[in-house]
Amino acid sequence: MAVAPALIPKRPGERVKTNRRDAVTLARLKRAGELIGVWVPDVVHEAVRDLVRGREAAADDLRRKRQQLLSFLLRHGRIYESGGHWTLAHRRWLARQSFEHTAQQIVFQEKMGRGHGGELPSSELRAQRDARLVEKSSRTQGKKLESVEVPRDYAQCNINTRKFKSVIIIIT
Q: Which residues 6+ apart lie within 8 Å of 137 measured at CB?
């Protein structure tokens, strides 16, 4: 069973920590059924999380690049006033922009080349993530995972500890 330290019941004033005391306390709590296990994601769920993180990073990057482009245009007095930004008409307006100085034109073209309002480069990631999430929810729907049994050879077990500072493993 993998247990998050934050979920281990503690009495007020119980601050002295030694391995022996911790082991006795954990064994007592385990016998009493007071330990709540945490779910340890498997390889498939970690892959889905990586897809979601990749999608979010791409969306954040696109948002930043768009803002940089709009800020550059604003600094040079180029304001699009014919509707919303990043519409087809706005993209056409962007394509018609040119600058007098070569350095400014280079900067503009560079910003246009990276995140000028096109689709996210990770649209495939979105489709794959959605398919995986549907698959995951259909498998785990209605199941409440209270604890996860960890194999005896837990050194090979990949445990995600991002949610908690550390994880305590009890081998059963």
A: none
